Amino acid sequence: MAMVYIPSQWRDLTGAVDRLELPGRNLREISRELESRFPGIAERLVEGDAIAAGLAASIDGAIASRGMYSPVGPTSEVHFLPAIGGG
Amino acid sequence: MVRKTHVATTINGEPVEFLCEARQSLLEVLRETLGLTGSKEGCNNGNCGACTVLLDGQPVDSCLVLAVEVEGAQITTIEGLSKDSHLHPIQQCFLEDAALQCGICTPGFIMSAKALLDRDPNPSEHAIRFQLAGNLCRCTGYDKIIRAVQDSAKRMAGQK
Amino acid sequence: MTPKSEQKKYKVIGTRPIRHDGADKVTGRAVYGADLRLAGIVHGKILRSPHAHAKVKSIDTSAAEKHPGVLAVVTRADMPNLKDKIADLGEGSVNLAHLGANVLAHDKVLYKGHAVAALAAVNPHVAEEALKLIKVDYEVLPSVTWVMDAMKDDAPLLHNDVFTKSMGKRASKPSNVPTHIHFEKGNIEEGFKAADVIVEREFKTASVHQGYIEPHVSTALWNQDGHVTVWTSTQGAFTARAQTAELLQIPVSQVTVVPCEIGGGFGGKIAVYLEPVAAMLSRKCGRPVKMVMTREDVFEGTGPTPGSFMRVKLGATKDGKLVAGEAWLAYDAGAFPGGVIGPGAMCVFSCYELPHAKVDGYDVLDNKPKTQAYRAPGATQAAFACETVIDELAEKLEIDPLEFRLKNAAKEGTRRVDGPVYPRVGLVETLEAAKNSPHWKSKLEGKHRGRGIASGYWFNIGLKSSVAANVNNDGTVSLIEGSTDIGGTRTSIAMQFAETLGITAEAVHPRVGDTDSVGYTDVTGGSRTTFATGLAAHEVALDIQRQMRERAAILWECDASQVQVEDGAYCHKDKRLTFAELAGQLGHTGGPVVGRATVSPEGASNAFGTHLVDVEVDPDTAKVTILRYTAIQDAGRAIHPSYVEGQMQGGAVQGIGWALNEEYVYSDQGRMENASYLDYRMPTALDVPAIETIIVEVPNPAHPYGVRGVGETPIIAPPAAIANAIYAATGVRMTELPMSPPRLWAAMTKGKQS
User: Fold this and answer.
1) Strands (E) located in C270-321
2) Residue C486 half-sphere exposure, CB side, CA atoms within 13 Å?
3) C332: which of C176, C306, C388, C598 fits an S-S bond (Cβ 3.0–4.6 Å)?
4) Of the candidates C213, C487, C690, which has its C-beta nearest B42's C-beta?
């Protein structure tokens, strides 16, 4: 199961939980699992079909490039970060 | 209808005539009237050197020269540097030494470098930096431009 | 994907061919935006607000419209209503109402220079004169141009529909703080308790501009068939197309963007300014409309990078191990939300192993142009703070600053404060290279002289690229790619293609396509181009190679799997054809060979850099002379070393300007006082010495040739390195940028006066 890290600004919804193992083959399934355990969290993570504006997901150290369809492996590490661009 | 002045001058060795308004700079006439767009506008007030041309052999910011002033003068622009199918040594050295990135300042630098090397065929690094201080580059940090000018001096000396 | 082993010698990668667009650039033939010529072209100009903050009560364009030389006038009233629309524009989502309001002000102007109206006329002089005929009735409001003032409860409110968002959580009252970022790692109370030495400092930095020598320029034609073509100076034709289409509320298919050669961008030519306005003017008059910004427009009307207020605290044990770090960062967003506080907050401690940390970052609205990226956006400010505190900490612990960094350097497995773990990265290698460099080993002698060191990190992004290639009968290949070329990337992309296919770089003809000619490609920025578009070029070369093997198989009547490729030549048993020879046979083996590839690699390629600088400070004038400068960076693999060196040198000199002279100077009325190259003082050739470069190569595991992006990292370390050198030279710790002579002199003489 993937290890999903909860950003500190979402811990008001998760209590003391800062990380947890979740089943899911992609970010869509992970976000559904998160929502089922911490109602209201999906609103911060997802907008319609896509990762919320201004947010990015890092899977195993690389920024996910397929949005909610980005695959997550059985031992992956997932973080949610501010989206960055470049100059 | 604004009254225009007739100007007869020489550009890159060829006689050229044009009509211009008194308020038009040489840069504007070169680019808009004569189609010589190699000289670039970066600031239009003489601070970046992207518009450098040679006026009777002297490097000038063509944005600070009024077009009416060049009656009877000899002007050299970037377009006049290469001969037939060959690049001028300065142009060649800029390419070999990778002395450009976006290239917008490059014509101005090449013209300033030509003016320097015409006057001083073996300049020191300091003299090169001093002479080129009126040309701004934001991409390269100047390092490779200076090297290209040094290499140009060597190549031009070797050709004599 | 395994990179080729270090032992294998490359044929093309690592060489220094002449760039393919070279002759055009040194002869003045290359067509930049302002060089464009079209039949019937007319000229547009923008009317800009003289006030930093004001309500726009009315705009009367009647006199301008009556002027005989004026063909069209547009104001906000002519542009579609975009309220509440969000669009995904490739590099993240954008609030279209804000983007539209930045392009042409709505009911308020939010900075001096904010575009209010525009007109098209027969020539630029007439256009400028006619602008004066547009009458705008303003109600001037109080303005604010310093982040800390803008955060106060009684500060003038720029927008009443902006609410602080904290990673998706929304506040209930509007404010000037659109975003609050917060990261935590471990427990900083415990961490600081364990520290033997703690250093805490506050910092201020001013707004600085990217300073590209080419002002923004766009030409648009809204043709009689409804199709809009835009020729523009842009870092990304596809993002310019998407933004333009969205702001005009027409389908993307109705817009074609042709990227011209671009005279510098550095992050400042990603957002559109002129394109939609030129298009609307063209729609009204039926002619192509060319709009060129003046240098003053560029300073006052386009995004500088944020000024900031920062507080950084770091603690270490007496044996030199960092234990805790805390950062509080407030960055300008300028007039609209969406500044670069995110990456700033993520980068501030990114060079170090830090078990306990807390970072708070705030995006702050103020009456300045909307900020844009300037190379590694947000990282330079943060590094200025962190790297000078590191320096002070090392000094207090009596540990050499380079050794201190080595002791605490981030490496593979280090967890960043914002969460992710680094894969294989090269910071330690850059520090080792610094330690072994001629610069570091040399003795610096003389009065008022000092040496400084600083490191920096940038993520680099991935995003999408498309490449297509056509094989010509003579064995050359035309390569069409979608990455606008700001610094020579069409050549580094061609070189990777050539290496994979086994041909020479000269046999490749790279070309940057417009939005109708090439597949979707994200911006040239984020240090992504040589990495991602190069990856696409590698893939298209593999596609072509596969097809060529099939053609050889047809000629030799065998199976394609029996055709080997050796050194770029196709072989089967005793038969051998070079690529060029086989290309000559395409006509009768099935026709042309065309290859294609699109990629969307996961970011990031993680680039670290370390800079060394020796300075001399004049005790009477506080002028800082850079005596010697060395930039060291992990490039993964340098495809064309000259252009990698060029990126390092260019970024370093931009950083030197940022450190020593560049700033937006604001009057009490919120007006920029130095909007020209004379007073916005960028480095000239006389201000800097040669910039020595050391390229370190720790191959990126995520790229076939090990490429890491290089473009942005070099701008991060210079201000901190120079501040540390100034301290070594004078004993004065500068905590404000720029460290210009008046500021440095004041700091040097403070306390010396009775």
Assistant:
1) 289-292, 308-316
2) 34
3) C306
4) C213
Evaluate if residue C82 carries a pLDDT over 90.
no
Of B21, B37, B45, the CB nearest to C28: B37
Closest Cα partner for A18 from A61, A79, A81?
A79
Terminal-to-terminal C-alpha distance of chain C: 67
Contact C434, C632 (CB under 8 A): yes
* Interval C591-615: pLDDT, tens: 999 999 999 998 678 999 999 999 9
Question: For chain A, give me the number of helices (H) and strands (E)?
Answer: 3, 7
Q: Is the pLDDT of residue C142 over 90?
A: yes
Share of chain C above pLDDT 70, in %: 97
Q: Please give the Cα distance from C689 to C686 (Å, whole number).
A: 8
Q: Which pLDDT does position C91 carry in this prediction?
A: 59
> Can you count the helices (H) and strands (E) in chain C?
20, 30
From the list C28, C651, C685, the residue facing B38 with the nearest CB is: C28
3-state helix, strand, coil in chain A (%, to 5): 30, 30, 40
CA distance C696 to C427: 10
CA–CA separation, B106 vs C550, rounded Å?
A: 46
Q: How far apart are CA B11 and CA C602, in angstroms?
A: 53
Whether this prediction's pTM lies above 0.90 is answered by yes
Q: Which helix (H) or strand (E) holds C299?
A: helix C295-301
Is the pair C, B in contact (3+ CB pairs within 8 Å)?
yes
Q: Are C420 and A63 in contact (CB under 8 A)?
A: no
Under an 8 A CB cutoff, do C27 and B43 touch? no
State the first-to-last Cα distance of chain B, in angstroms, to the nearest integer.
Answer: 52
Looking at residues A57-85, what average pLDDT do you find?
A: 91
Pick A61's closest partner by Cβ from C305, C422, C462. C422
Structure tokens at A84: 């960055």
Other C-beta atoms within 10 Å of C517: how many? 14
C145/A69 Cα distance (integer angstroms): 42
Q: Which amino acid is at C507?
A: A
Query: Region B84-89: what's the mean pLDDT?
Result: 95
ipTM: 0.98
Judged by CB atoms closer than 8 Å, whether chains meet at C642 and B144 is answered as: yes
Res C1: pLDDT: 32
Omega prior to C337 cis, within 30 of 0 = no
> Smallest Cα–Cα separation from C347: which of C460, C510, C450, C192?
C460
B109 interfaces chain C, CB cutoff of 8 Å: no
Residue whose pair of structure tokens reads 């170090």 in the numeric block: C352
Residues in chain C with CB shorter than 8 Å from the CB of B102 are: 212-214, 261-265, 486-487
Q: Strand A2-5 vs strand C569-572: parallel, antiparallel, or unpaired?
A: unpaired
Q: Which residue has the higher pLDDT, C169 or C252?
A: C252
Are the beta carbons of A87 and C268 separated by less than 8 Å?
A: yes
Q: Pairing relation of β-strands B74-76 and B5-11? A: parallel
Do C649 and B140 make contact, defined as CB atoms within 8 angstroms? yes
Q: Which helix or strand (DSSP H or E) is residue C180 part of?
A: strand C179-185
Cα–Cα distance measured from residue C650 to residue C712, given in angstroms and rounded to the nearest whole number: 10
Residue A33, amino acid: E
Question: Does residue B136 sit at the C interface (CB-CB below 8 Å)?
Answer: yes
Alpha helices by DSSP H, C397-506: 401-408, 427-435, 438-441, 489-501
Buried b (16+ CB within 10 A) or exposed e, C459-474: bbbbbbbbbbbebbee
Distances B46 to B43, B61, B63, C686 between C-alpha atoms, Å: 7, 6, 6, 17
Neighbors of chain C by Cβ distance (3+ pairs < 8 Å): A, B
* B-chain residues near C687 (CB < 8 A): 133
Q: Name the 3-class secondary structure at C153.
A: coil
Cβ atoms of C516 and C256 within 8 Å: the answer is yes
Polymer length of chain C: 754
